[in-house]
Amino acid sequence: METVKAIGDVLGQLGVDLRAHAGGDLNSRSPIDGGILASLRADTAQETTDKIGQAHAAFLQWRNLPAPRRGELVRLFGEELRMHKEALGRLVTLETGKILQEGLGEVQEMIDICDFAVGLSRQLYGLTIASERPGHRMMETWHPLGVTGVISAFNFPVAVWSWNAALAFVCGDSVVWKPSEKTPLTAIAVQALFERAAARFGNDAPPGLSALIIGGREAGEALVDDRRVPLVSATGSTRMGRAVAERCARRMARSLLELGGNNAMIVAPSADLELATRAIVFSAVGTAGQRCTTLRRLFVHDSVADSLLARLKKIYETLPVGNPLEQGTLVGPLIDEAAYSAMQDALEQARAEGGRVHGGSRAQVAGCKGGHYVAPALAEMPEQTAVMHHETFAPILYIARYQSLEQAIAWNNAVPQGLSSSIFTTDIREAEMFMSASGSDCGIANVNIGPSGAEIGGAFGGEKETGGGRESGSDAWKAYMRRATNTVNYSQALPLAQGISFEI
Ligand code: UN1
User: Fold this and answer.
1) Per-10-residue mean pLDDT for the chain, 504 residues long?
2) Which is nearest to 92 in space by CA: 158, 14, 151?
3) Which of 72, 195, 258, 430 is labelled catalytic?
């Protein structure tokens, strides 16, 4: 099989040695053709707890290094990524099935967050606060937190880890990573690149600063339940996130959650339909509909619906579905058989709810027999029906017509998830209304771009069942640190706050 032949080369270019992980029954399977890329061994419970212990010891040392010096390690890691962008991007494609352009984009996203984190290492600012007492000063200091646990999903197998890890390292934390069992190889490769950067950095990088746990659910649970891990950042399904949140809450640990999205776009009467069409297609079929930011619900004003639909149908009919390694392919495979079945079930439900479905059936791709390829689906719905309240991780775009902006915003907000959203309009009132307090209730609300493909500079995450966490840019770093409020008395008196008199 093509993928099985390709994997050796790519791992060689990345300098990955699988021996430490080899010899188990955990298969990394390429969604491109079903080829088994490697059979790996899961870490034992003892190995997992040892790695967490080592990460904790590493933290105790790492936290004392000045933050700009910690940033230097992230800078070196970013250099490794730059040097290996092509090979790592190809590995992402081999293991996730996303097209090569998107595999490379994922590695670029890692490079970007490294650059951001290096700058941040000199900007971990705290406030100074006016004290109500004479001769006193108040301030906030941000300190390293501890071991950051990262649980990542198959669809962004390395970028989402890097959002967490790059910030955690400059914040003075160590990181223990439990990747999706569907994508262990990309994680092993990234860990190898990190170790190379750490070796270049020298003895100031303690062993175990970044650890990788290969395994399934039990490995994740061990991480979530370990008292030495004060923060667990988890990306994946709402079901998984709820379990993580509950277990963390039981031991009063922090959880940072980035869970399901069910993202909508509103296309208003004044929209530039040409731009909207391009944004819709990228957001709805990119990564074969398997981004948490994928566009799933499209609300089109009645007056432009026929025109927009005609454009979309035409493009959907000829979308290049195929081998993601080949140039020209825009839609690669779904991750596995279960994803294919979930898509068919959702389309069935859409039909039962009065939807008219175009596309959605299995596509045959030469040389890729073991893969699950589909023609992306458009589902014209009579209104926002029950199926549209669920996130199905597949390229299904539900379309409903609206009459008033209030109705479209209400539909946008009516689902349990609250990650990303967007509006296409050239009417400034509509744009501002959409971004206002009574507009979109999502963590991301865009104007004249689609809901997916965010830059790393903004805080990334969403509300409601999306979990409330914010990762990546802006001030997301604060989640990886603990805040101390310091009050300093430089006077010779001891005035009490709130004017309390307490004479002894
Ligand atoms: C995800 O799907 O979990 O905004 C992350 C985007 C990407 C990240 C997606 N930058 O679509």
Assistant:
1) 92 94 93 97 96 98 98 98 98 98 98 98 98 98 98 98 98 98 98 98 97 96 98 97 98 97 98 98 98 98 98 98 98 98 98 98 96 98 98 98 98 98 98 98 98 98 98 98 98 97 95
2) 158
3) 258
Residue among 257, 269, 266 at smallest CA distance from 153: 257
Quote the ligand 1 centre to 390 CA distance (angstroms): 18
Pocket of ligand 1 (CB under 6 A): 109, 155-156, 160, 235, 291-293, 452-454
Question: Amino acid letter at 66?
Answer: P
Q: Say what the alpha-carbon torsion angle 204, 205, 208, 211 is, to the nearest 10 degrees.
A: 170
The rounded distance, in Å, linking the Cα atoms of 155 and 286 is 11
Nearest-atom index, ligand 1, CA of 109: 10
User: Ligand 1: distance of its center to the CA of 86 in Å?
Assistant: 20
Encode 291-308: b = buried (16+ Cβ within 10 Å), e = exposed.
Answer: bbbbbbbbbbbeebbeeb
Distance from the alpha carbon of residue 136 to the mean position of ligand 1, in angstroms = 46
- Cα 474 from Cα 456, distance rounded (Å): 9
Nearest protein CA to atom 6 of ligand 1, as residue: 453
Residue 258 bears catalytic tag: yes
Q: Are 289 and 374 in contact (CB under 8 A)?
A: no
Q: Please choose, from the candidates 314, 296, 294, the residue with its C-alpha nearest in 3D space to the C-alpha of residue 399.
A: 296
> What residue type is assigned to position 178 of the chain?
K
Comparing CA positions, the residue from 215, 164, 157 lying closest to residue 190 is 157
Write out the E strands in 236-376: 254-258, 263-267, 295-301, 356-358, 362-363, 373-374
